[in-house]
Design goal:
By secondary structure, the protein is an alpha+beta fold. The protein is 32% helix and 26% strand. The chain has a single domain, classed as Nucleotidyltransferase, domain 5 (2-Layer Sandwich). A hairpin with a 2-residue loop joins strand 1 and strand 2.
Length: 338
Amino acid sequence: MSHHSSAARRHGKSIIIVLLACFLLAAGLMTVQYLRGKWQSAPGVSAVETDDPDVLRYNGGRYIKNDAIETVLLMGLDKFESQTGGDIGGVNGQQADMLLLLVLDRNAGTCTPLHINRDTMCTIYQLDAMGEPFMPLNGQICLAHAYGSGGRDSCRNQVRAVSELLYDMPINHYASVTMDAVGIINNLVGGVTVTVLDDLSALDSALVQGETVTLQGDQALTYVRARMGLADPTNLNRMKRQQQYLTALQQKFTQELAENDDLSRQIVTAVSDDMVSDFTVNSMNSFVDMATTYTFTPIREIAGEAVYSEDRSPEFYADEDALYQTVVDLFYLPLDAE
């Protein structure tokens, strides 16, 4: 293997590890109202109008499903590794406060991250004693992970909620990490520098709006997690900080990797206890091989409205047109225009 290809592989692996390990960016712990909401059936692709089941007609055009797509759902949990989970089919209290879907197009050679608002209202499920869905509820999408043991069954339940939100688009893999990993990863790269977007000085005197700060340790968690008590406490506002931090973290990883070939292994070792994934060693290696030469496109998010319910719980309602357009953009290929 050439030195160039070896370096490219290490760079690709470092990017994947960043994505698999640091996208917890956990939000503030909140009181979980698990059984709140109305019963409703799972959403379907009711907007599709076509005579051919393999062809989607949308906005005057025709589209076919892109078979070259592979997806990975990354979940950041609002818990620490030392906190215990629940039983299969029970309630564990671990919300998936950071949800990021990686959409990889093997033909185009691109990876598009889709940042999903954790407050998005949609169908979620309670699980039975076998870890299977049996009771649909309407609630924040982050609560899907709160049902089950907090392990693989909870991850699969979260995958189910995201897939149904996206009109049943398939999700091939998942990985969850806890908030312990934020400070660990942040320190392993020597700190991450950002220009503070919100006034967080009440939580950390160094985090003054407009100041340029190199975040250290749990200070990084404060930066990406805080929202309550701010001038704009919505998750939409916090997502801006999360995306800013992620971009800066990726840049710092690239710089540090040039000086430390062992950085990827160090990170994997450091956060292994904080991660749950369906990746095997072989499938991870295959995924890394596939992603090594990919171009990472700007992070996308779905437009919508952030509101508060009568009990002051934050809720986000995705704009249906924006949601549907996102699905078409990420999972379909255009045919001839009509």
